[in-house]
TrEMBL record:
The chain crosses the membrane at residues 47-66, 71-89, 95-117, 138-165, 218-237. This is L-proline glycine betaine ABC transport system permease protein ProW. Its main location: membrane. It holds the Pfam family BPD_transp_1. The keyword Magnesium does not apply. It comes from the Bacteria. The lineage of its organism: Bacteria, Pseudomonadati, Pseudomonadota, Gammaproteobacteria, Pseudomonadales. It is a multi-pass membrane protein. GO terms for biological process: choline transport; glycine betaine transport.
Amino acid sequence: MTSADIHFSPGEFLAPAVDWLNANLHGVFKAISQVIETVLGGVESALLAPHPYLMIGIVGGLAFFFANKRVALFAVSMLAFCLFSGLWVASMQTIALVSVAVLISVAVAFPLGVLAARVKKVDEAFLPVLNIMQTVPPWVYLIPAVMLFSLGRVPAIIATIVYGIPPMLRLTTLAFKQLPKEFLELGQAIGASPRSILFKIELPTAAPTLLVGLNQCILLSLAMVVLAGLVGAGGLGAEVTRGLTRMEMGLGLRAGLAIVAVALLLDRLSRGALQRHSPARLN
């Protein structure tokens, strides 16, 4: 027996498990897919229903309200580039994918982060898992998602959610660990309920660090959504894939620049909100 005769194939062990899951939990996977498709379709419709000029104005107004005039002008210019490059629909599809994925990632990561900050054993159990999750290359997350949900937008969303959870969870844990004990003791001293302490003391104090986690979650989710164009997720990732496979360099370049525009847009919006809460953290 030579070394060439010795090989290990994980697929030989995983294939039966995947077949069993698909055969016995098909209804569950189908229900999950329908929920995600419904939510994603609703967000896409909301983004694409208004005229592009109106949507650009709405985003600019929101950016001015939550951040400042500079961020608003920057957001308008980035969306205008997506429009005039002929990739408005694909850009809105990408923003919808990122929005849904980030919303679910935060909904999962935030309570787990708070729990980890308060229970040391939970934090110790999460630490090696998070280390592994943030070490694994992003495209690896697509493999099990495609195995269970086939091709399309649903596996892209699932993979993006999983990929976006670690940074938000880590920074939520850090934010609540760094809370000044004097603030918590003061709340307890005046007889505030645990809920009041959470919403009136802990969350406002932890907000800057939480917004950093949200910023990282958004950018990592965008990176995964673009990569998920390889599995039929649509959006700008699909345009890049189409440009590369058909050797249409013009389309690939425009789509790549549109991805940069969307990334800068999302980054500036989240950083603008962060800067409004704590300018020193961005210096």
